[in-house]
Design a protein that fits this description.
Keywords: ATP-binding, Cell wall biogenesis/degradation, Ligase, Nucleotide-binding
Strand content: 15-25%
Strand order of the largest sheet: 10-9-8-11-12
Family: Belongs to the D-alanine--D-alanine ligase family.
GO molecular function, one term: ATP binding
Shape: globular
Order of helices and strands: EHHEHEHHHEEEHEEEHHEHEEHH
CATH architecture of the largest domain: 2-Layer Sandwich
Number of strands: 12
InterPro entries: ATP-grasp, ATP_grasp_subdomain_1, Dala_Dala_lig_C, PreATP-grasp_dom_sf
CATH topology of the largest domain: D-amino Acid Aminotransferase, Chain A, domain 1
Structural class: alpha+beta
EC number: 6.3.2.4
Oligomer: single chain
Helix content: 25-40%
Largest sheet: 5 strands, antiparallel
CATH class of the largest domain: Alpha Beta
Number of helices: 12
């Protein structure tokens, strides 16, 4: 079987003049090397495609693949992660991970929380604002937490994201609106333990790989798994496989959210506990990072005893069921 690999290579965008932060979600060469090596170990023929413009050019000259392993994040807009899946749907080419609807919905954290809250998934109170003047009437008691509505990798999150006063809220929202040019999500601050749940599979066959607790060490930015903490995770963050009743509840919430939204093949869901130690949904990551060493899902899988090749194999097995069923 011929498997194309679609991705956004960070160094290509840096060469075009984009900044380190603008390209933070894009992949390093070693990620693509690791995915391709795993696919070959699994006996697939591979073909590197790259970003959406390369895909357009190659589709236009008639090239096709039996399946595309898609990890491209896209560059702009709320639908940027959905661009390649939408193109592949138009050409009838199967691909890994979720469809354009799920990828667009999950990227807009406010929309995702609205939908999941209506589905009964526990979600902290939140609002989405598009102007600083809207901070006067958010209706959520302090402290609150503010971040861009559609960024990943902790972009826009730092020590000032936990907000205790109206003045701090105005300052943080003004900064986020100016820098990221998109609405700001403001939510009740959850002071408890933070988890990320790794998932593989689709629908009724969804399985939990593991529940990983994210523990900030001394010297880390406080109260947030921020962009800076992720960049320096070796010194600032401890990752620990979580067990017990709270971890089981986090896993159950995650599987329910994954199935109800129609997520596919593999990814992560982030949760955080409130003051009563009850976990709530925070973010959905249906296109999770796959760097074999640094990304959360491979770290979690490794802690749970699942090798990188096995993780890629489980993702492919889930996607292949759609190929086999036509």
């Amino acid at each position: 079987m011929k498997v194309g690999i679609a991705y956004d290579l960070r160094q290509e965008y840096l060469a075009e003049g984009y900044s380190d932060e603008e390209t933070a979600e894009f992949d390093r060469p070693e990620t693509i090397d690791a995915i391709e090596s795993a696919l070959r170990d699994l006996k697939f023929e591979t073909d590197r495609i790259g970003h959406v413009r390369n895909l357009v050019r190659r589709l236009a000259v008639g090239e096709r693949w039996d399946l595309v392993f898609n990890i491209a994040e896209g560059l702009a807009g709320f639908g940027r992660e959905a661009a390649i899946p939408a193109l592949l749907d138009a050409y009838g080419i199967p691909y890994t991970f979720s469809d354009p609807l799920v990828l667009s919905l999950s990227l807009h954290k406010g929309m995702a929380k609205n939908v999941l809250r209506n589905m009964g998934i526990p979600t902290a109170d939140f609002v989405v604002i598009q102007d600083v003047s809207e901070t006067e009437a958010i209706g959520i008691p302090f402290p609150v937490f503010a971040k861009p509505v559609a960024e990943g990798t902790g972009k826009g999150i730092d020590a000032a994201s936990r907000i205790g006063t109206q003045e701090e809220l105005v300052a943080k929202c003004r900064q986020l609106l100016e820098v990221y040019r998109q609405p700001v999500l403001i939510e009740k601050f959850l002071p408890g333990r933070e988890f990320t749940v790794g998932l593989v599979g689709t629908g009724a066959k969804t399985e939990v790989v593991g529940v990983m607790e994210v523990i900030l060490k001394d010297g880390a930015e406080r109260d947030a798994y921020s962009y800076s903490n992720k960049e320096h995770y070796e010194r600032r963050v401890e990752y620990r496989l979580a067990e017990g009743s709270i971890a089981r509840l986090a896993a159950r919430i995650s599987v329910e959210a994954w199935r109800k939204l129609g997520c596919r093949d593999g990814g992560r869901i982030d949760l955080r506990c409130d003051e009563r130690n009850v976990p709530s949904f925070v973010e959905l990551n249906p296109l999770a990072g796959l760097h074999p060493v640094h990304s959360d899902l491979p770290i979690l899988s490794r802690l749970a005893g699942m090798s990188y090749v096995e993780l890629i194999g489980r993702i492919m097995a889930s996607a292949m069921e759609r190929v086999d069923s036509g």
